[in-house]
């Protein structure tokens, strides 16, 4: 059973999310929070697997709450769920340690999939969000040396590079496992080492590293 905490200042939104999530037998909502401070406190009480976090909330906004939650030992995955779709929000969410960024008009099936992926240590971004993130960072690299980006990947093994390419292509762990003929557990182990070697905190940062080095076009 995957435990989920809902953090949104609108009770109607929380009720709608709860209704969607509880249509699945493998998901349960353990608590709700109406502001960022309450969300941080609820994480301490319930230790959920996943937090669905709104950005615009009183007392402590969702991005500050995300950073506080992700700084805890063995933190839950945080999916930022918002009506806003701007570079500023996306980059701040990723910097805060969010593992996913979805718009509130995301179809219910995609929302459920995102929660399951996050609980498994994977991630999901809205396609439009993924495109703008990659475009922004790769556009910046036109004025930078690709040699430096490649040099950053020097510590990686050949297998780790192959996994990095798959992440750059936006593939989930199960797809990577099939493509590279390895178990999902092995994929997760490689991704853990990629996080360590590249000092990354989420999969989008790994994808950006692949694009910067020219492993993925």
From TrEMBL:
Residues 149-214 form the HTH luxR-type domain. CDD domains: LuxR_C_like, REC_NarL-like. Transmembrane segments: none annotated. The keyword Transcription applies. Keywords: DNA-binding, Phosphoprotein, Transcription, Transcription regulation. GO terms for molecular function: DNA binding. SUPFAM superfamilies: C-terminal effector domain of the bipartite response regulators, CheY-like. PROSITE patterns: HTH_LUXR_1, HTH_LUXR_2, RESPONSE_REGULATORY. One of its GO terms (biological process) is phosphorelay signal transduction system. It holds the Pfam family Response_reg. The modification 4-aspartylphosphate is found at residue 54. Residues 3-119 form the Response regulatory domain. This is DNA-binding NarL/FixJ family response regulator.
């Amino acid at each position: 059973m995957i435990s989920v905490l809902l953090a949104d200042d609108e009770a109607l939104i929380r009720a709608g999310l709860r209704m969607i999530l509880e249509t699945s037998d493998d998901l349960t909502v353990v608590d709700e929070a109406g502001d960022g401070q309450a969300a941080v406190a609820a994480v301490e009480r319930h230790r959920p697997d996943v937090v669905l976090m709104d950005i615009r909330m009183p007392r402590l906004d969702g991005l500050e709450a995300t950073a506080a939650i992700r700084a805890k030992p063995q933190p839950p995955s945080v999916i930022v769920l918002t009506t806003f779709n701007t570079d500023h929000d996306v980059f701040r969410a990723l910097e805060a340690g969010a593992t996913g960024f979805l718009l509130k008009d995301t179809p219910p099936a995609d929302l459920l999939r995102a929660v399951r992926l996050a609980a498994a240590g994977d991630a999901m971004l809205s396609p439009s969000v993924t495109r703008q993130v990659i475009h922004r960072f790769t556009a910046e690299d036109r004025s930078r040396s690709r040699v430096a980006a490649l040099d950053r990947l020097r510590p990686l093994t050949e297998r780790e590079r192959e996994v990095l390419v798959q992440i750059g292509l936006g593939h989930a762990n199960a797809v990577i496992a099939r493509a590279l003929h390895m178990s999902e557990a092995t994929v997760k182990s490689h991704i853990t080492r990629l996080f360590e070697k590249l000092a990354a905190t989420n999969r989008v940062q790994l994808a950006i590293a692949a694009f910067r080095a020219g492993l993925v076009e």
